[in-house]
Write a structure and sequence with these properties.
Layout (H helix, E strand, L loop, with lengths): L1 H23 L1 E5 L3 E5 L4 E8 L5 E6 L8 E5 L2 E6 L9 E8 L3 E12 L6 E4 L3 E2 L4 E10 L5 E7 L2 E7 L10 E9 L9 E10 L2 E10 L2 E13 L3 E3 L4 E10 L3 E7 L5 E5 L3 E4 L8 E9 L2 E12 L4 E5 L3 E5 L4 E8 L5 E6 L8 E5 L2 E6 L9 E8 L2 E14 L4 E4 L9 E11 L4 E7 L2 E7 L10 E9 L9 E8 L10 E7 L4 E11 L3 E3 L4 E10 L3 E7 L5 E5 L3 E4 L8 E9 L2 E12 L9 H30 L4 H8 L1
Parallel strand pairs: 2-8, 10-17, 18-24, 26-32, 41-47
Antiparallel strand pairs: 1-3, 3-6, 4-7, 5-6, 7-8, 9-11, 11-14, 12-13, 12-15, 15-16, 17-19, 19-22, 20-21, 20-23, 23-24, 25-27, 27-30, 28-31, 29-30, 31-32, 32-34, 33-34, 34-37, 35-36, 35-38, 38-39, 40-42, 42-45, 43-44, 43-46, 46-47
């Protein structure tokens, strides 16, 4: 009996465990029952379980068609991803989860698709013209399912048309649906909003898209009118201004044309006002003005009559022109009073023209580019009109005066040193008419004119030179080189050219001095400060050096003050200070003597007397030697000259 009880109790535990496991095993889906997806988007269906450590999953459609997606299962979750969604994915999907020994569970998710990717499009049959019927079409492209589509067309908030679309519900395709409305616009419609609204319904909650266009109503051009000033009958050489106006919406654009002999129109202008100057007889004819906007045009015509005028010839720029070598010169011969003149150009001495001729209508040009010495002539323009012939002359004279003078110095300006200044005028012609002045401030230093052979044609550089001795008082004064080219009737700028240079006179370093503190004779361990100063302009730069045993100089410092701390005996020697600027150098030297420091001991009185005597004799000898050296440096021996020779 106890064995049976154990057996029954064990069976009860197994049954209870299976029952508990069966009750704990559950399945859930996301989304729970249904999802709505737009064609082309990505959709993920998720199936997950609880109460099972290692479930297995499978996916299928309700009608066992292909999944058209990717399945990924991991742990207690499985995901079916469809990317992109298409018609092939519009199914009920079943997720089956199996858990041993609990069995299997299954959940269903309905996938519905739609297409509503773009806002509606509004198309007009043409520009909106007041009083003329027009058709407007509203299109909804690539829509599905179209049996759930509803469209409205409104003008200024007023409904023009509403339309539903019925179709084969089993037909799966993207279609473009539209509605059309024909109405007659009035000018008051301008600025009103035309709205096309589309709604795609799902469970009574629509997805809405709409497009708005602001209306612009046009009026075709009308009442075109022309005013002519001074008259429609003119004389050759005269001018006329014609103004055209036209009504319409938007305001018409004005175009002027001339009617040719074959009836075609020659476009002249796109402005409301047309001005014709220097009228010729061939300018006579019919001129048409057209007012044009987007929807139409309106024309008005006027006839101009140009009467014959006496034949005259003008040559420009005048009877005489002065041109710079290298420039471009255009000689123009114009005719009035002749419909078809012929032109002929020549020089007074029948030399080659060396230029480019161009004759068109009543004008002929002779272009000399670049102008050179071979173009310095008198030119004649002969005009023939029928049996009449007239001739005009123009004289071409040349010059070269292209650059400002150049000021050059023979060297640096140093107080008291002579310097030569040169003033150059480059590439000048004719140089027999050149004058050069050199001034310092308002004072003329030198003036020169240049006389040459008048038949000599060449570009030359002319100059004048002046030597003077600058002083410090010249600093800040302005040196002026002024050139004048004297040509009668010359009309160009400048006739006069000049260059300036502000003077700065340098002063070479001088009066270089050295101050030694406390003394040039010191005991070891003492400090000494040596300060150097030097006069000059610009202020000299200070350079301290020490003279080595071989006479060479060892640079020490570029400061005015040189300080030696805790001097040693080997610091003794000659120290040199140089005052330096761009005008020169000035040198000063000082000798520094470093003596051993005195020591104190207890001596025998006899030795003490001997030491005292020697202490008086030795400094005396040292002083004699020192003053002898100083006398030698100041007298027959020059430290500066010695260093110059050694360096």
């Amino acid at each position: 009996m106890p064995g049976k009880m154990v057996l029954i109790f064990g069976a009860w535990n197994v049954l209870w465990t299976l029952l508990a496991a069966s009750q704990a095993f559950k399945i859930e889906t996301t989304p729970e029952f249904r999802t709505l997806a737009q064609i082309g988007d990505s959709v993920s269906l998720t199936c997950s379980t609880t109460g099972c450590e290692a479930p297995s999953f499978s996916w299928r459609t309700q009608i066992d068609s292909p999944l058209n997606g990717k399945v990924r299962s991991e742990g207690t979750k499985s995901t079916l991803t469809m990317d992109p969604v298409s018609f092939a994915n519009e199914h009920s999907y079943l997720c089956t989860a199996t858990c041993e020994p609990s069995g299997k569970l299954e959940r269903e998710i309905q996938v519905e698709i739609y297409s509503f990717p773009k806002d509606p499009e509004i198309h007009f049959s043409g520009p909106l013209e007041a009083g003329k019927p027009t058709t407007v079409k509203c299109l909804v492209p690539d829509v599905y399912p179209f049996d759930r589509l509803e469209m409205d067309l409104l003008k200024g908030g007023h409904l023009l048309k509403n339309q539903d679309f019925l179709g084969d519900v089993d037909k799966k395709s993207l279609e473009t649906k539209s509605l059309e409305v024909t109405f007659t616009p009035v000018i008051e419609d301008t600025g009103k909003a035309l709205v096309c609204q589309a709604r795609l319904y799902f469970d009574s909650v629509p997805k809405v898209r709409e497009t708005m266009r602001e209306l612009q109503v046009y009026i075709s051009p009308k009442n075109t009118d022309i005013s002519v000033n001074p008259s429609t009958t003119l004389q050759e050489g005269g001018s006329v201004t014609m103004t055209c106006s036209s009504e319409g919406e938007p305001a018409p654009h004005i175009f002027w044309n001339k009617k040719l002999d074959d009836g075609k129109l020659q476009l002249l202008s796109g402005n409301a006002t047309l001005t014709l100057i220097a009228m010729r007889m061939e300018d006579s004819g019919i001129y048409a003005c057209e007012g044009i906007n987007l929807i139409g045009k309106d024309r008005k015509e006027v006839e101009l009559i140009v009467q014959e005028k006496p034949f005259t010839v003008q040559i420009s720029p005048g009877p005489r022109i002065v041109a710079q070598i290298g420039d471009s010169v255009v000689l123009t011969c114009g005719v009035t009073g002749c419909e078809s003149p012929s032109f002929h150009w020549r020089t007074q001495i029948d030399s080659p023209l060396s230029g480019k001729l161009k004759s068109e209508g009543t004008k002929s040009t002779l272009t000399l580019s670049p102008v050179s010495f071979e173009n310095e002539h008198s030119y004649l323009c002969t005009v023939t009109c029928g049996r009449r012939r007239l001739e005009k002359e123009i004289q071409v004279e040349l010059y070269s005066f292209s650059r400002d003078p150049e000021i050059e110095m023979s060297g640096l300006l140093v107080n008291g040193n002579p310097v030569t200044v040169t003033c150059k005028v480059p590439n000048v012609y004719p140089f027999d008419r050149l004058e050069i002045e050199l001034l310092k401030g308002d004072t003329i230093l030198k003036n020169e004119n240049f006389l040459e052979e008048l038949d000599r044609k060449s570009l030359e550089t002319k100059s004048l030179e002046m030597t003077f001795i600058p002083t410090t008082e010249d600093t800040g004064k302005v040196l002026v080189c002024q050139a004048k080219l004297q040509i009668d009737g010359l009309e160009f700028e400048p006739k006069q050219r000049k260059s300036t240079q502000t003077l700065f006179v340098n002063v070479a370093p001088n009066d270089t001095t050295i101050l030694v503190s406390p003394s040039s004779i010191l005991e070891e361990g003492s400090s000494v400060t040596m300060t150097c100063s030097s006069d000059g302009l610009p202020a000299p730069k200070i350079l301290w050096s020490r003279q080595l045993n071989n006479g060479a100089l060892q640079p020490l410092s570029e400061n005015a003050t040189l300080t030696l701390n805790s001097t040693k005996k080997e610091d003794s020697g000659i120290y040199v200070c140089d005052g330096i600027n761009q005008a020169g150098t000035n040198r000063k030297a000082v000798e520094l003597i470093i003596q051993e420091r005195e020591t104190h001991t207890t001596l025998h009185p006899a030795l003490l007397m001997l030491y005292c005597a020697s202490s008086l004799i030795i400094p005396a000898i040292g002083m004699i030697v020192y003053f002898a050296r100083r006398a030698n440096m100041r007298g027959s021996y020059s430290l500066v000259e010695a260093q110059k020779s050694k360096v």
